[in-house]
Specification:
single chain, alpha/beta, six-stranded mixed beta sheet, two-stranded antiparallel sheet, 6 helices, 10 strands, 20% strand
Length: 203
């Protein structure tokens, strides 16, 4: 009985010591506990941003004409700037470029289609659309029609494409012509319209 009483007293002493240590140190929290406190000065990780939306699939048709077949440097400059925004570029030439000019166009990553100088830019666009084919066009989100009569870009094309991607439209351009007299028909009026040197048409 004395041994049993001594063992009970020792158990009580150990319990009192453990209780004292608990009051001094506080309970231990596991790292996975929702009550666990972050270390002093720790910063919670920022949430991951959503992945960027995929770039629209685009085909660009660029119409070129020069009576001497000379391709000035502003043309490949535009074609190079387009490369990161389009899946394919086709340059349709109303009249054959010279050998050096053809090399410039191909070095800028463009396919080249040479035709006669008839029908201005719109007939060139039409013939190139037929050349590309309906299946290829159906697989793209946006068709770009542009020609050699403007210089650029001066600012990154991403600014233009990102701005227009946020707008729910079927087609768009970069400049518009006001209503005016029709230069091809005396006495007729030409309605306001998007100019043909840059038009984007969506699927």
């Amino acid at each position: 009985e004395r041994a049993q009483a001594r063992s009970l007293a020792e158990d009580l002493d150990r319990a009192r010591i453990a209780a004292s240590e608990f009051r001094l140190a506080g309970p231990r929290e596991s790292a996975s506990s929702p009550c666990a406190a972050a270390p002093a000065g720790a910063v919670a990780p920022a949430p991951r941003p959503p992945p960027p939306a995929p770039r629209p699939r685009r085909i660009a048709i660029y119409l070129f004409h020069d009576a001497l077949g000379i391709v000035d440097d502003y043309v490949p400059h535009m074609l190079e700037a387009l490369r990161e925004h389009v899946d394919r570029t086709v340059v349709v030439c109303n009249g054959a470029p010279d050998a050096q000019g053809l090399a410039k166009l191909e070095a800028a990553g463009a396919d080249v289609l040479v035709r006669g100088n008839t029908g201005f830019d719109v007939h060139g666009y039409r013939e190139c659309i037929e050349h590309i084919g309906r299946d290829a066009l159906a697989a793209c989100d946006e068709l770009l029609l542009m020609n050699y009569t403007f210089f650029g870009p001066i600012f990154p094309l991403a600014e233009l494409f990102d701005t227009m991607a946020a707008r729910a439209v079927d087609f768009w351009g970069i400049t518009a012509h006001a209503e005016a007299g029709n230069p091809f028909e005396a006495g007729a009026r030409m309605p306001a319209h998007i100019q043909s040197h840059f038009i984007a048409v969506r699927a």
